[in-house]
Amino acid sequence: MVENNNNDNEDSPTPLSQITYLLRKYKLVEGLVHLQDSPDDTLTNSSVQKQNLAELQELLDSLHPADIAHILEALPLNDRLLIWSMIRSEHDGEILLETSDAVRETLITDMGNHELIAATEYLDADEIADLAPDLPQDVMDDVFRSLPIEEREQLRAAMSYAEDSVGALMDFDVITIREDVRLEVVLRYLRRLDEMPDHTDQLFVVDRNEQLKGVLLINRLLVSDPDILVAEVMAKEIIKLHPDDVAQQAANAFERYDLVSASVVDDDDKLLGRVTVNTVIDFIRAKAENEALNLAGLSEEEDLFAPVLKSVKNRWVWLAINMVTAFIASRVIGVFEDSIEKLVALATLMPIIAGIGGNSGNQTITMIVRALALDQINTSSAWKLITKEIGVSLVNGLIWGTVIGLLTFAIYQNADLGLVMTLAMILNLLLAALLGVLIPLTLRKFGRDPALGSSVMITAVTDSGGFFIFLSLATVFLL
Fold first, then answer.
1. What's the average model confidence in pLDDT over 291-298?
2. For a disulfide at 26, which of 52, 251, 379, 409, Cβ 3.0-4.6 Å?
């Protein structure tokens, strides 16, 4: 029975496939209209076309904003804008928050100022702050004027924090209580609310000056005697974040302590807001995507269906750098042209040294970038880390260098050539390990993203270095 249910789930169409199918039906009728010698509105306004649009609308209305955002990112521009025009205005803001920056830009460009202002009406101040960098200034001015004074101040505060700070992740929607009231009073207060803020696992206990005194966990509230005071069951040892803290520190705290929410306070312990797990997950996902892009040398997230010139602009910088490094590698080979002419086997063996060195370097860089993101590396541990990675590469070099040396001897019946392959493998892996640690650490020291172009740089170094090491050894020992 379980297997049958699983099969049914696997075979059921996804929202994206359903939308794509309905779009094809809609566009098929539109295409027939244009093929007519004297097109009229008869076919366009037919019951069939109305039914197609109705099915599309019904499906879109049933989807979660995150699902719609995923669908929009997977559609070509014209289809994307058609679907976007069918979204109900009250969902526009939520969907814009869920889409990538690149896709969001195409949607905002298609909207008028009044539509953008209407989209923000259903968002909280912290959510508007997330959209603010992409909205025109005149729209933001109108949004500011339309907000109540309290939300206006919250929005101004949220926009004042750096993008990678805890303040940028902060949610102002919190429930506060006093420590000198009975739990029964707290329960009555909660029942009067229309709904509780998302991911509310604790209530924040503050004094009259809004200073944080502790937290009352919801599970303690539900199981404790309603006649006792909040002060008797609240937790005083709590995780406190500060708005200027690095957001990655908050992410580490959520992972370490399995948090659902955490308080954000100022230097005087005054409660400013909270950070919730869903926001942290979004931050971690975005950071991971950016690191993956940076490792590949992409300057920003790219719309899959972006115009050709825009995609070229996003990719050209590191391609140009790669071309320069490839040219350097070719010149290194050119220096040893005479050696290669005398022993043609060198040309077939060079890529092995460079390829394995590049792979080993990328492994090291991946480990270092991850450790830096988790704040596991400091100045005192950097040298120990370099020593450890050199040790790993030395062992790998001895093992795999010996293997490739024996294979080379078996193929070419040349012991000296096998020995050169072994030595070149060891030296290039040591070079890859050293630079695999130093490149991200150096980028971090100069305030750059440790992942920025690291993969491109380590590949360039291990290619040029591997060719030079191998051909130099071959020239000395074989010719």
1. 70
2. 52
